[in-house]
Design brief:
Blueprint: H1 12-15, E1 39-40, E2 99-105, E3 108-113, E4 119-123, E5 128-132, E6 142-146, E7 158-162, E8 172-178, E9 183-191, E10 194-195, E11 199-205, E12 216-218, E13 224-227, E14 246-250, E15 267-270, E16 275-280, E17 286-290, E18 296-302, E19 327-330, E20 336-341, E21 347-351, E22 356-360, E23 372-374, E24 382-388, E25 391-396, E26 403-409
Length: 416
């Protein structure tokens, strides 16, 4: 298996010199669902375009001045920041409407919340990692450092970020990024708001102009789960000798996690096209979002060792050799990226081409209720979503070099 691993240990932050100094502030047809219908909430607009291969690129969205309906969120009240990368406001527990926490970003791909309530945001096209202070603290965002990425003139660059459960004891986070030869994962030391020299723990993930996957997240078992894409080569998804088109499960040092279904392999599940969302519910079940090609995008309940069908099938096939998605959408309405489980137990999915957040109720048996659509067209293409306290944070991905991290009330996405 073409990967490398490197033990980093708890002495990592003490022995690695800080290499990057703290910088200043940076500048729809009907949906197919398990019940056959869908409730749409929020104001509609013309979706941004996506190419016919179901990638996550596209033109900036058609802007709309119409606020979301009162059933989903209040009208946006975000003030314009004085310069890119600064806070537009100082949100507090009493903040009722939308608040821009970070702006002027060239594709805000991933948000990782630190134990102190601050957050890290990856900027895909530059490799920068932004540090956003805890809302209400009075601080301003800063650039904590930059990783040595290589753009793929498409969807590659600095992608997912993940914070391990023992971060307080060992302040290291993880980043997934593209190089000239592959996609890889590095452990990145954190000290006083600045990143140190990254240590590569896992490499050899196929890279391409499209379908680089990139979502990483620590599971309830303490292992790192990795969503990869097939990099435009559909044969990789069914090939258990390739890391492409898979969900991987590895240790924090980059080794295959014990208990994986294929012996010494890091592969947890396969037959995926392009996984950009991972989240666990209260029953410790893993959910993943899946980019389709021309027909269906998917929400999948992940089972170890199972085959999710790509490229043999797209969407529900009713074939016992493959796992059918729990929910599916026409690609014009979704193009899912980040996902999160909300305080109500539903799965919330950030939609790029669909320019929405989709709420998917989850039943105890792992089936889905009727999805509802929120924030349609209000902020354009939505890349990532996180629940932070009594707020929900989203990032935009509008390909206009003016993307934002926005804090919203829970009611904006249907929690209530």
């Amino acid at each position: 298996m073409p990967h490398t691993s490197r033990s980093i240990g708890r002495a990592l932050t003490g022995c690695v010199a800080i290499a990057l100094a703290l910088a200043g502030c940076s500048t729809a047809g009907p949906t197919t669902t398990p019940s056959g219908n869908v409730t749409s909430a929020g104001s509609a607009t013309t979706p941004g375009t996506a190419d016919a291969t179901g990638t996550d690129t596209g033109n900036p969205p058609t802007k709309t001045a119409a606020p979301p309906s009162s059933s989903t969120s209040p009208a946006p009240t975000t003030s314009t920041p004085t310069s890119p990368g600064t806070q537009a406001a100082k949100p507090t527990a009493a903040a009722a409407g939308p608040v821009t926490l970070l702006s002027g970003i060239d594709i805000a791909w991933s948000v990782a919340v630190l134990p102190d309530g601050s957050a890290l945001v990856s900027e895909r096209n530059t490799g920068r990692i932004h540090h956003v202070p805890r809302p209400g603290s009075g601080g301003k965002p800063t650039v904590a450092g930059e990783l040595p990425i290589t753009r793929t003139e498409g969807e590659g660059g600095l992608l997912g970020l993940a914070v391990p459960p023992d971060f307080d004891a060992d302040p290291v986070f993880y980043a997934y990024y593209s190089t000239d030869s592959d996609n890889r994962i590095a452990a990145v030391p954190w000290r006083d708001g600045t990143i140190g020299k990254p240590v590569v723990i896992f490499s050899g993930i196929p890279r391409g102009r499209y379908h680089n996957g990139g979502r990483i997240a620590f599971g309830p078992d303490g292992y790192l789960y990795v969503g990869t894409g097939e990099a435009g080569d559909t044969s990789l998804s069914q090939n258990l000798g390739s890391l492409g088109g898979k969900i991987l499960r590895i240790t924090p040092d980059g080794d295959p996690a014990p208990g994986n279904p294929f012996g010494g392999s890091p592969i947890w599940s396969y037959g995926h096209r392009n996984v950009q969302g991972l989240a666990w519910d209260s029953r410790k079940r893993l959910w993943a979002s899946e980019f389709g090609q021309n027909t269906f995008d998917e929400l999948n309940l992940i089972q170890p060792g199972r085959n999710y069908g790509w490229p043999e099938v797209e969407g529900r096939a009713g074939n016992p050799d493959y796992v059918d998605p729990v929910a599916q959408w026409p690609t014009s309405e979704m193009s899912p990226s980040g996902i999160a489980v909300g305080p109500d137990g539903a799965v919330y999915m950030a939609a790029l081409r669909g320019q929405s957040v989709w709420r998917v109720p989850i039943n105890a048996d792992g089936t889905a209720g009727t999805p509802t659509r929120h924030l349609q067209g209000v902020y354009g293409r939505i890349r990532d979503i996180r629940f932070v306290g009594d707020r929900v944070w989203i990032t935009t991905s509008n390909n206009d070099r003016a993307d934002r991290l926005i804090s919203l009330p829970l009611s904006a996405v249907g929690v209530g």
